[in-house]
Amino acid sequence: QKPVRGAATPIISTMSLARRPRELWSASYLFSYLMECIIEFVPKEATIISPEKIDENDKKSEVGLYPDRIFIKDMELSMINEMTEKALKKFSERIKISLEDVKNYFNIMGVSLKAEYDKETIDTLNKRLTVLELNNRTVTNQAYERVNELIQNVTHSPLFPHTFDRGIFQSLAKIATHELKDKLMEEKDDDVIYKQIKDKRISGYKSYHKYFCIVYADGDNISKIVSSLDDGKLEKFSGNLLQFGISAFDIIKKYGGMPIYAGGDDLLFIAPVASSPNNNIFNLISQLDDI
Predict the structure, then answer these.
(1) How far apart are the C-alpha atoms of 277 and 288, rounded to whole Å?
(2) pLDDT band (50, 70, 90) for residue 201
(3) Of 124-128, 163-167, 183-187, 243-247, where does mean pLDDT reach its minimum?
(4) What is the pLDDT of residues 50-96, one digit of tens each?
(5) Cα–Cα 20 to 30 A to 159, which of 7, 93, 201, 205?
């Protein structure tokens, strides 16, 4: 067996381009979608250990569900080139950035290790890949500008039609006033929403409707847990993480929140302080804890 581990970068520098929630969502979704493209072109003779592939019936396109790293076994490292070439081509077509700029900006790295058991390789591959990610490369100005423009695109991003039904990221005011949604006309601008509340003297308006919550959560000791799993159990654990992300997405959306990402053991979302008189952010967090 030849387990291979791959990762897509540069995540930190891309996330740092974000100045608004919708930009943070775009930056995060980019890498989840890139991983989706990679998974699509994994050779049939190879086996994906982690992450679990999302079933088309469960796919939640409004949030990134894939992490930035992938474990594959029974795959020669030489096969990565063909796989990544196909993945980057599809990724380029989808985000409407030239393949040249995509290759200049996004970096897919891989390391391999021969081992008899999956358990022996995970910790070692993780460490090697972490070291590899420290070797940053120069990004061309043009590639940087194209990605930055995509992330900052407000209404015409090629990512939005693929994800949101209305093709627009929810405004913070719309999220904050979710409890009043049945009393408000459809608006996209924050100032217009609050002006509408004031002018029409919307009943039920409370001071907390001016605020929203940003919630971040991650799993404890996930790396240690993964490294301690026996062969065959990592795939199940990976599947459980995926199902957690899908379930969390459903609960957050039902509450009136906006998931930013739910990949692997990481979860980030924006939500109203309350979605109804008897349901507030603490109830939502309790629901997520119970998944």
Answers:
(1) 19
(2) confident
(3) 163-167
(4) 888 887 766 556 788 888 888 888 887 778 888 999 999 999 999 99
(5) 7
